[in-house]
Specification:
four-stranded antiparallel beta sheet, 11 helices, alpha/beta, Rossmann fold
């Protein structure tokens, strides 16, 4: 697959003063940051810090109480903005339909919206699967796939619209370490070959350090640091230090039966 022109394939994202509460409980507390064109930007933090809620706001699934999100300086609250730019979300679960085979899942958006003739949809879907090394599983059903394969099929499905922005919600959750490495490699390959802007929400430290151009650390609904991997690793904030250095240490005094 030929790489599209980077100037048309990636977008700039700016989040300004985003606030959101549910039942009076603040979840996002004045979030502001910018993602540059063609960048892989990782939002990392512990569970419950507001990462997935933030992602839903960027893609337009949630509306903020305050603040704005801009794509190329156009507000996502404007329906024309959402229609103008191509965005795709890779769900944490993969969200494949069990009643459809892999090929049908990948081409589903084009089929449902009747954007291409059937033979063209098949060609595009096979191309995206081949791009991810999955052409040989096109006739299988989701129940016949491993967790890692399901995530890669979900990425292939996102690619059929030639997105300018891909958002990943916990892409390595529920995967074994080897499958998680494969997903990380695929995200890197897309950034290099397709030049898409990527926003990745994760609490997987290895994934974040392996793919990020820049990172934001979230804690209790706030961004407490933004920087390169090296800058985040060496950041003095105690919450960041605890998160990055949290490791299981067996009780050395426990008696072995």
């Amino acid at each position: 697959m030929s790489a599209p022109d980077p100037s048309t394939q990636s977008v700039n994202i700016r989040v300004a003063g985003l606030r959101k509460s549910y039942d009076g409980v603040p979840v996002l507390k004045g979030i502001s940051f910018e993602v540059r064109r063609g960048e892989t930007f990782v939002i990392m933090g512990p569970s419950g810090s507001g990462k997935s809620v933030l992602l839903k706001h960027i893609i337009g699934l949630e509306a903020p109480d305050e603040g704005e999100i801009f794509i190329e300086e156009h507000s996502v609250r404007d329906e024309a903005t959402m229609a103008q730019y191509r965005m795709a979300l890779v769900f944490q679960s993969g969200a494949l339909l069990n009643s459809l085979n892999v090929l049908e899942n990948v081409g589903l958006y084009l089929t449902e919206h009747r954007l291409k003739p059937p033979e063209e949809i098949t060609r595009i879907a096979i191309e995206k699967l081949d791009f991810l090394g999955l052409k040989n599983v096109k006739d299988r059903f989701p129940g016949e796939l491993s967790g890692g394969m399901k995530k890669r099929v979900a990425i292939a499905r996102a690619l059929v619209i030639e997105p300018q922005l891909i958002l990943y919600d916990e892409p390595t959750s529920e995967l074994d370490p080897l499958s998680a490495v494969v997903i990380g490699e695929e995200i890197l390959n897309l950034q290099k070959r397709v030049h898409v802007t990527s926003i990745v929400v994760t609490h997987d430290r290895d994934l974040a350090f392996g793919i990020a151009d820049r990172m934001a650390m979230m804690h209790e609904g706030e961004i407490i640091a933004i920087g390169t991997v090296a800058e985040i690793k060496n950041h003095p904030h105690p919450v960041i230090h605890r998160f990055l250095n949290a490791d299981f240490k067996p009780n050395s005094h426990r008696e072995t039966p």
